[in-house]
Every structure is written in structure tokens, then in C-alpha cells.
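Workshop exercise sheet. Pairs work together: one partner reads the sequence aloud, the other fills in the structure field after running the prediction. Swap roles for the next sheet.
Pair: D.N. / O.F.
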Amino acid sequence: MKIGCVREIKNNEFRVGLTPDNVRAYIAAGHHVYIEKGAGVGSGFPDHEYVDAGASLLDEAAEIWALVDMMVKVKEPLPCEYPFFRDGLILYTYLHLAADRQQMDALLAGKVNAVAYETLQEKDRSLPLLAPMSQIAGRLSIQEGAKYLEKKFGGEGILLAGVPGTPKANVVILGGGTVGMNACKIAVGMGANVTILDISLRRLEELDNMFGAHIQTLVSNDSNVERVLKDADLVIGSVLIPGGSTPKLFKRKYLPEMKNGAVFVDVAIDQGGCGEASHVTTHDDPVFIEEGVVHYCVGNMPGAVPRTSTIALTNATIRYGLEIAAGGLEEACRRSEVIRSGVNTYRGSLTNRNVAEAHDCEYTDLMELIH
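Structure field:
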């Protein structure tokens, strides 16, 4: 199979879909790999490392899109890349279609076979291709939140950990999944007062066992969320429905009740965000202020640390990519329900139930199409 990887063009996105080690793995399995010149530079992988690994370097992204059987990326294609879509092309990347009707329509019209990192689910219900970025985004959320609590950025002007004789910041985390747990780990490590909310009592028990007396766990409901937000200095939104739209737990009506200069980091923004006032921002212009609350809603947070993010992501994606390349997407789906779970669009049909429900579109079972 011909495998391609182009430079990411999203704002301040320096990650890359394939590392030189990934190229070696595909080459060793008998495939051909084509890399756009400069694609890996932002993550610290110069062109010569790809050449040494056996890849062919091409000058133009358009050449690679037209040539390959499978395109491996990091972020969703932007509208300027939609003309490259074609019947039967395998696209292996993050898609977040529940929050992006335009992209979904373009993939369906182009009859692209799109495999989304964020919906690929193992038999134990884990999300192995989302997990590494969730770990990074969770940890970054506290780092970024602490920065935007500084007065110069519109924040309250407080130090997250405080110092002896001063109050520590109150951190509220909405959602106890991978993002929330990693945010909790960093916030506790920095010495903040941490409250974490989740709808699952089992998950709250797990978090209580992990962090003990260092955190307060609460069941996530409107009453508890509203109550804890009144005293919150930093709020992390980390709610996820795989492939689906994110529920709006952080309601606009709560904003006037919060501290002036409090910070809200909406890590769920890729799936539409869990804040009613949230809209996607970029690393160039990451925050906006509404009702005195600083909102940080960057859609590609891990792109700020591309070296770490690229290695973590590709460590996870290479395994499934090799499975797809070995016998084609159809054969991989016949053999593996895990691979099937990642397929969002197939030859003009929508094959992910949560995405279909998010846009009130017709859902088609993938196995009906590939038999």
C-alpha cells in the first residue's frame, strides 16, 4: 500500500502524522511511504531522517494526496484540502465530525473512507488513540489555566499553589476520564484545592482511591456544578462522548455567579465544547472573556508541545495503521471490530452512530457495506 503524510496546516499545529520510526515500520511491512518536505520539522524530525528511514520526499502536498492509498494525519483536513478527497481514499486522523458538519459533508461527497482516531475503541471500551492526547491535554490544561490566572491575561492574579499565609486556588474539574484524571494529577501536584465531578460513582471511587484526601469528589449534576463554580478559580471542562457532541455542563447562566477573573479551559472544544459560551480559539488568540470569566478554548492544545505529542500519538496509531495497510481497510474491518469502530464514513455513507445522531443523519452499519 502507498502511505502518505503531509504537513499539518492548522493554526500553530506542529505535530506530524508519521515519525521516521513509523516510516521504518511501514517499509519493513512492504509498503511505500511518501512524506511532504518539511512535514516533521515542527516536531523535531528533519527531512533527512525520513529519507534515511526509506521514505520518498515530495515537494507538494497535492502530489501526495493524489498518489497514496492511505493518508495519515494528525488533525482534520481543512476546507482547502477538501478538493483532494476522492473515492476510496483512506484517511486516518482525528476528525471530530460531531462538531464539524462541513467536513462530514465533504467526506461523504468525496466518498472518503475516514478512520477517526477519537472513535476507535478497544474491547474494554478504552480509546487508545485518543488517550495519549487526552493525557497531554489534561496536563496542559492546568499549565495553561495557571498562566491565564495571571493578571496580565485577564485573570484574578493568583498563584495556583499559593504560598504560606495565602489561599490556594480552587480548581474544579468537570469529568473524571483521562483528561480529568491527568488534570487532577497536575493540580494536586501543584498544591491546589481540587474538586472533580463525574456522573459515574465507580469512577469517583477510583479517583478517590488514587488521590485520597487531596481531592473532593462529587456527583456531576446541575446543583453541584453550580455550587462549586461560585468559588472556583480555575475550571477544566473534560467531558467526552466518543464521536458525539459534548453536553453543555458549563452553562452561560453560571458565569455572572463566578469570580471576576476566573478561568475556564474547555478541553472538550474539539467535540463542540462543554461550555455554552465556548467557541474554538487558536494558539495565536487563545482566550476571550465573557461575563468576567476568561475562556481558553484552543482546538489543538497538544500542538503546543509537538515533540511530546507526536511521539505519544504515533506510538499508538502505528499499530492500527499497519493493520489497515496489511490487507486494506475492508479486510481489516472484517477481522477487527476495533478497526470498525474507527470508521466514520465509508464510500459516501455515515458509519458512526454518534456522529449520525449529532447531525440527525442516516446511519449505516459498516458491515452491511463491506460484505
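Discussion prompt: The domain at 2-127+306-370 is CATH 3.40.50.720 (Rossmann fold). What would you look at next?
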